[in-house]
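Example record used in the benchmark description.
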Amino acid sequence: MAGGGLSGGRQEAVTPGAQSLLCCGLLVFCKLYVLGSGGWGQVWREPRGPSWESRMGTLWSQERPPEDEQPAERSRWWAPARRLLMAVLLLSLLLGSSVVLFYIFRSCGPRPCEMPACSHLLKYYLASGNSSAPPCTDFFSFACAEAKGANNSFQALAEENKSRLQKILEAPWSWPPGSGEEKAFQFYHSCLDTEAIEAAGASPLRQVIEELGGWPISSNWTSLDFNRTLRLLMSQYDHFPFFRAYLGPHPTPPHTPIIQIDQPEFDVPLKQKQEQKIYAQIVRAYLTYLNQLGTLLGGDPGQVQQHASLSISITSQLFQFLRPLEQQQAQEKLFQIVTIDQLQEMAPAIDWLSCLQATFTQMSLSPSQTIVVHDLDYVKNMSKLVEEQLSSHSDFLQSHMIFGLVGTLSPALTSTFREARRLLNQKLQELTGRPPVPAYARPMKCVEETGAFFEPTLAALFVREAFSPSTQSAAMDLFTAIKDALVTRLRRLPWMDEETQKKAQDRVTQLQVEMGAPGWAMTPALASQKYSEVHLGPSFLQSFLSGIRSRRARIIQSFLEPFPHHRWQVSPWGVKAYYSVSDHVVVFPAGLLQPPFFHPAYPRAVNFGAAGSIMARELLHVLDQLLLPGNCPACDTHALEREQRCLESRSAAFPSRGGTSSGGFHSFLESAADVGALAIALQAYSKRLLWRHGETTLPSLDLTPHQLFFRSYAQVMCRELSTQDSQDTQSPPTLRVHGPLSNTLAFARHFHCAHGALLNPSRRCQLW
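Model output (structure tokens):
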């Protein structure tokens, strides 16, 4: 039974089915007794008129001879005795039924779950919460007081999934020669062979640099054509120093694949509005790192310093060309459709046709090929900067590209390069206030790299290990209950007109859902075909580069092939669910539907409160467009705006703890989804309780099933308050817990919150 209907309680003599039947039978028994005008006495009392015994006595007296007549005194003592016997029988029946009813109703109520999965969950909840915290004013502390680390629940689950992958990769297997499984295991073990990596030193990296034309500060520089070097970086090393080029769905329907040009991913975490002091410290930290790279590659310290400084200057200028997303939205210039020939005229420093053709070799491109440019002003300014540098400092442009490539390849280099990168990341996290990245041991790093390059092969192995067919069936049953609850809830929204309700319901019911892993990944023959071009050795860096090229070719080919299914944007062991607008599909990877969020043996309260609220949240994103200004003209705009203002005021009523969100309408949509998700999950859970008995609870936690539901919901949001990412568009974790709970009357009722308490306000919103 989905949603944790399996009970871990003690075995009873009466089966659950028999208990339910007996409960119903006894209820009917009691009903007859209560509804009877005279109670059971009417059933047993003597009928009016002559009794059966008296009538028979008359007949006997007529037939019996006088010598057989009984004395009259016998009838006088038999009547009181009979009444006394009937009273004793009735009293015994009532007493017995009371005992049975007590036993049955006690058995029909929630029982403690004693399954191993529940025992582990109980320890997890006890370790993260603080039961002495007042739930009606600080439920975040009640559930998450001891949470450590950034987004602790998800982070802990991600670590557990990686550990499972590690066990898979280290288990003794025998795979067919040349298969994807064999290459994945070989790659993982070559990554662990640090002795061989250290013995090779920087020689493999120097060979790569020479293929790119050399480096002015560490080797002979052949001064190759700039566009030739850029073309090699893009096609052979998947490195994009000035812009990003990728194949993706067209921004507008029918979302056909199209080449897209976007802003680059900068190595330095600069911001549009940043304190000068912080900016200077970031620049110094990055300059130190670049100097280390140049020195490790044998460059002259003075020359390295000069090239590193100019590389940072180029990065800083490129960053100034960026337009924030909010500005692009305000100007209604999120993207522009141009041909390659038109782009060549607007940004002539880049040989666009040559670079794109080398990158997307599976496609036949021409100057008339249309592409999507997401920030055309940035591309134009970037081209001008490159032209200026080419006319005066072409060697600095070469150094800028090499510096970036070495940083990208650092996971495959010696310990000195990796340590330099680690120290840079640590310093940047301190300066920007971002959550610290866990310091993984080498085996876990190798698990990450192997998973990135051999995902199709490892997907099937992970799913077989962690997401059995019975687990998937239970998860799908939970999703169906959540979806049905949303469809029902749409009928009761005060701001939505009938026609919009029908369209919204159709959109939800037509939604596709995928769980576990992509369907094709579970077909060994298809998964193995993805690795025919992967060549391992002779050095680990060469294996690493082969993995990069194979992954990029696999992604591009997946867009070009006729593909009837959705292309997953997350690995099966990932912990992030998402909704794809272009394919109208919601995805829940196997790695997410794991403890502590989901398990078939869990109490239903846990599964609905944790995994159910996650599912409901993604379902609501299907309807995000309705909340955008002007997107629902037939709706009651006054009622909609009233509920939006209500939600905003409720959020503002809570004290800010653990950072603030970035604001904007996107942040509002996320908050609205949080509030609606809890309401939908609760509605689905209450319906499940109504129709299915046998609920269980966690022993020793002293929470009713509904209290456990809210506790499980909050557990999803648990993380250490000091680790709020400044770039996070979500609200602070305390608000994500307290906001939805305060908007739920059932929470106040089940936790007996006084009227006017922080989480029991007088006014509640009904946006969803």
